[in-house]
Structures are given as structure tokens and as C-alpha cells.
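Appendix B, Record 12. Input sequence as logged:
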Amino acid sequence: MSKWQEKTKRPVLPIYMAALVWPVGALLLPPYRLSNLLILAGLSLIAYAVGTKLCPTRVVRTLIPYATGSEDVDAMLNGIAANLDALHKLNEAIPDPQLSAAMERMEKAGRSIAAVVEKTPDKARAIDRFARYYLPETVKLMATYAALEQNGVKGENAAQIESELRRNAATTATAFENQLDALYSAEAMDISTDIEVLDSILKSQNLAK
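Logged structural output:
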């Protein structure tokens, strides 16, 4: 399960302030006298205390997205999370309502898929192609669309890409949802037919590997 990792971060300012007391104080109080050394030590402690109040110790919490006990599964889930975050940002940059709605469905299904595999790491094999191919390539396509929109690229090829993506976005979202359904099914579902149109777009636009 995902968890938070806490790490104590100590500020360096108190140490610098305490250390600075010695060279500055030595100019006024010769350090060869024991009494002066004790005074400087006391001033150094006071400086350290003041520095600690000015810059208190902080506890930094870092979210470890996945900790299933399997490095391979964790890597897969972290990759899915990164791609879904990228998809979310792209969605914010795409003004098309129809395409945006389909992308929201993709993201929702994708995060649910990750949640299922996080709880049941044995199901990771069932989403291997989704994680390593379909999701990353979908993000790549949406990034291409967003770039065309933002840069105002016009022309027959650009129009064809945009048209195909808008027309088939819902099909891709359905394929993601079918992949999620497959994790709950006793029989593995083959989503390749549902998303075959995505493959054809990738190949026709030279975006497939």
C-alpha cells in the first residue's frame, strides 16, 4: 500500500550562528583564558538556541506512491501514475469538451486499475500491455493534439490527426474501462479489438514504436 515517509530536516543556520560566535567573540575576549572560553561557550549555546527558534526542525513528509513488496509491480504502478498525471495536465490544456470528457474517463479508469493492482499485485501481469503500451501511447497522442492546438498548426495532416483523435477518444476510454472490468472478471478480457483503432492511428501517423 502507498504510505508516507517522514524525514527530519535540521536547519543549518543554528550551527552557523553558534560557530560564528567563536571567531567574533575571540576578538573581544582572548580565548586563552578559561573564563573567556566559558563565556564564549555560553554565548555559542545562546546563539544556537536563537537560531533554532528562528529556523525550527522540520519534518518533511514524502509520499511513496506504491509499496506492494514487488519492485517490478511498484515500477509499473509508478509509471502508470506518471502517465495519468501527464494525461490530467494535458486535459487541462485541451479546450475540446468531447475530448476532455473522454480523457477524464481514461484517467478515472486508469487510476482505478492502479488501485486494484496495488491491492492485488498478482494481477499486474494482466495489465502489462496496458501499462507499457496503450497508456503511454495514448498520452503521446494527446500530447500531439495539445501541441497542435497550442501552436495553432493548420493543414490537412494536422486536421486529420485532430479529427481522428476526437472521433476515437471515446473508444479508447471504453477500452480502458474494459481493462478495468477485466481485473474483476474470472476470465481475462482481450481489449485489443476495442482499441485496434488506436493502433491504426499510431501507425498511420508514424507515432507507434
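Residues 156-184 form the longest helix (29 residues).
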